Amino acid sequence: MVHASRIFRATTIALRAVFFASSLLCAVQAFALSEIKPDETAPPEVTDPTPLPDLTPDRSGEVPMPNPATPPQNATPPESAPPADGEPAETEPSEDETADPARPHVDPDAVVPEIIYDLSRLPGPTRRMRELILEATKSGDIEKLRPLLGMGDGATTLSFGGVEGDLIEFLKQQSGDGEGHEILAILEEVLEAGFVHVDAGKPEELYVWPYFFAVPIEKLTPPQRVELFRIVTAGDYEDMKNYGAYIFYRVGITPEGRWMFFVAGD
User: Fold this and answer.
1) Bond prior to 210 in cis (omega within 30° of 0)
2) What's the pTM value of the predicted model, to 2 decimals?
């Protein structure tokens, strides 16, 4: 029993020694860990990533393309392609095609156009407009011309330079008496003369009074010169001979009955 008691005590002492040693080891480790200081070194600086290589192709040797919305400076327009077989070539409009229809239609080398007195040969609308104008002239009231003159782009041409303001007031200013009576008399005499049919079948087709509009002055016969002196003076006639054409007042009416012009001059 004594032997067993000693063994038990020895064992107990050994176990206590082991426990003490273990506790001491843990304390030493804890103390060591408490002495470790955090790393005060700043984190490494983050640098920009390495840029990717430029894969854009080198175009330094190429000719830059022009902006389609802006033509290049000093560019020479391309030559017109020749017309295809069977197609007519484009041409610039001739002087005759761009001429003012109110200017004298006189060609000294051309055949004198037919001089017409037969009013039945006029288209209905043309004849009616002529009658309305004559009714206004015979009334002595120039205001009666107003509805016949039209307005805007469709107004009757009274001057090659255009008219600013009221058309009736312009006619009064052109009249020697200031009231428009002289102009009415001239307009009546012009429309009582013979007339010519010009540019038949064309968009600019017209009936024009008096017929001197399309007849060279030097080709007038004696009876025709008598008719001319019903409208102009001898002094006017001399001026027209120098010019080579009739340049006094004339009236143009379309086949549709539009009063195109009442002008004088060249």
Assistant:
1) yes
2) 0.62
